[in-house]
Design goal:
Distance between the termini: 57 Å
Number of helices: 14
Strand order of the largest sheet: 4-14-5-10-11-12
Length: 531
């Protein structure tokens, strides 16, 4: 079975097709006259309804709900005491209080002892020292990368039997200032270059490296260390009022978008003329029979379908993520593959590099397992780009058939036209799939197919002598451009050549009706003009 190097016989390496934009993403440009401007008919919202809802909801929540919630007085304060751990960072929820007791041993006359070392994940630091020498008052030295502060310690002067004092550091989430209390004295500290909103590591050096004085005993001790994290546990009622209000607005907009999409789809469904009956398409036995394979086959034109080697339709086994990953690999392979960075940008843009790499590895493994059941398909990474390797003689892919035809500067042979008809007869490229990155591929395929059939029909087809081929080409063009005048002309001439005048008239009337609905004006050509 295919592995990292694949077992495919041929590596697909096909030049990029460059074409004039005719269908841009989910927007259909309807050709009115060959030299006139093209009018745009929106076939779908550029963003899916999930993005419409998500962007509206979360943006309004961010700008409206959270500020209002913050002003409410209904929050319930909850405090948690957490054990000290100098190996991990602590992050603020509302505020953080650090408490500890400093005990001084009698008999010592000089101190310069580190009490606390703080470091942040933003490469800032803060150190707290106790400083005392005979004849001077005890004080705390608090300094960082940019500043230093001296804080007097309000305790009885030496010699006292044993003196101790409590130190509290209080960090507030909404301010870069913080408080230090020593005993009953409170100090407001700022301008030390330390941001309390970052993550902290707290280290008490005396716990692991005690200071021993001249008497042989520990001169300063740290005890009763406590970390108290305070947070809000209940969202205010104002928040919920706004949440419900925005949700209702969001649902109304979503409903309006869906109604608009349904109306556009109905217009397209009525104008996407169905393929002619088989007896009409193969008049005089001119067109060869074509039966789409359903074993080891992958279809991208029309709706996405994939069949395993036994002929089972395994499309539903592709989760949305696996489907998009597979389509990225397949469609980008003719363009020499897709890089890991591009995959991350499209599929895992919200994850860091390591997380994206892990997700990619897991999903590549799942995808390989699914493709093994299809046939000789492998996934490889060459020069930093991911590609599919497959044996195109063992696995049929309509998209690759189309790519091979694109290599021809201009299709003039009937054989190639038949191949393109077989590929395009199911409809536009991935008509049921909408990704932003897919838009340019849809545009190129639509432009190439319409222009190729138009040029061939104008120069190679006599509608009187080949009405079946004219009808077939007209039907395919209509699947890509429901209001294409040239396709209407082909269809009417084909029906007239077969003596089916009533069908020709109905085709014209339908086209004129849909044209009027789409553009809000009457179709300016009569049936006689088209005929």
């Amino acid at each position: 079975m295919p592995g990292e190097q694949g077992i495919g016989k041929k590596n697909i390496n096909i030049k990029k097709q460059i074409g004039f934009l005719y269908v841009a993403g989910n927007t259909i440009f309807v050709r009115m006259k060959k030299e006139e401007k093209e009018t745009k008919l929106s076939a779908d919202c550029h963003l899916s309804h999930f993005r419409w809802g998500g962007i509206l909801l979360y943006s309004l929540l961010f700008f409206l709900l959270f500020p209002l919630s913050g002003m409410s007085q209904e929050n319930v304060v909850h405090s948690d005491t957490i054990p000290p751990d100098n190996s991990r960072y602590l992050y603020l929820k509302k505020q953080l209080c650090v408490e500890f007791t400093v005990s001084l041993h009698a008999g010592e006359s000089n101190y310069f002892t580190p009490l606390l070392q703080l470091s942040s994940n933003e490469n800032e630091y803060l150190n707290l020292f106790l400083d005392y020498q005979v004849g001077t008052p005890k004080q705390l030295l608090l300094y960082s990368r940019t500043n230093i502060r001296k804080l007097p310690v309000p305790v009885p002067e030496y010699p006292a039997a044993v003196s101790s004092f409590e130190i509290k550091l209080l960090f507030n989430q909404q301010s870069k200032n913080f408080h230090v209390s020593v005993g009953d004295t409170l100090y407001l500290i700022d301008n030390l270059g330390f941001d309390p909103q970052a993550g902290y590591k707290f280290n008490f050096p005396l716990l692991n490296d005690p200071v021993v004085g001249a008497t042989g005993q520990q001169s300063v001790q740290i005890s009763q260390i406590r970390f108290i994290q305070t947070s809000d546990r209940r969202i205010s009622r104002t928040f919920w009022y706004w949440f419900v209000f925005v949700l209702i607005i969001d649902l109304l907009i979503f409903g309006a978008v869906q109604l608009r999409k349904r109306r556009i789809r109905n217009i397209q469904a009525r104008t996407a003329y169905p393929a002619e009956p088989a007896t009409e398409q193969r008049a005089n036995g001119e067109l060869p029979e074509f039966t789409p394979p359903v074993q080891s086959a992958i279809y991208l034109f029309g709706n996405f379908h994939i069949y395993d080697a036994q002929g089972n339709n395994i499309t539903r086994k592709f989760t949305p993520l696996l489907k998009e990953l597979f389509l990225l690999l397949l469609i980008y392979t003719p363009e020499k593959g897709i890089t890991s960075e591009k995959l991350r940008e499209i599929l895992w843009f919200d994850k860091n590099e390591q997380s994206a790499k892990n997700n990619r590895a897991v999903n590549m493994g799942k995808l390989r397992s699914l493709l093994e059941s299809v046939g000789e398909i492998g996934i490889t990474n060459r020069n930093g780009s991911w590609e599919l390797l497959l044996n195109d003689e063992a696995v049929y892919v309509d998209y690759l058939e189309y790519i091979n035809l694109c290599q021809t500067s201009r299709i003039t042979s009937r054989e190639d036209i038949d191949k393109l008809l077989h590929v395009a007869q199911s409809g536009a490229l991935l008509a049921d799939t909408h990704y932003e990155w897919l838009d340019r591929f849809k545009s190129k395929s639509s432009d190439f197919i319409i222009d190729t059939f138009t040029q061939y029909a104008e120069t190679r087809i006599n509608s009187v002598e080949q009405p079946d081929l004219a009808l077939r080409i007209a039907g395919v063009i209509f699947r890509f451009d429901p209001l294409n005048e040239f396709a209407l002309q082909l269809r009417i001439q084909g029906y007239v050549a077969l003596g089916k005048h009533s069908l020709a008239k109905k085709a014209y009337e339908r086209f004129a009706r849909e044209y009027s609905e789409a553009y809000g004006q009457k179709f300016d050509k009569s049936f006689i003009d088209i005929r």
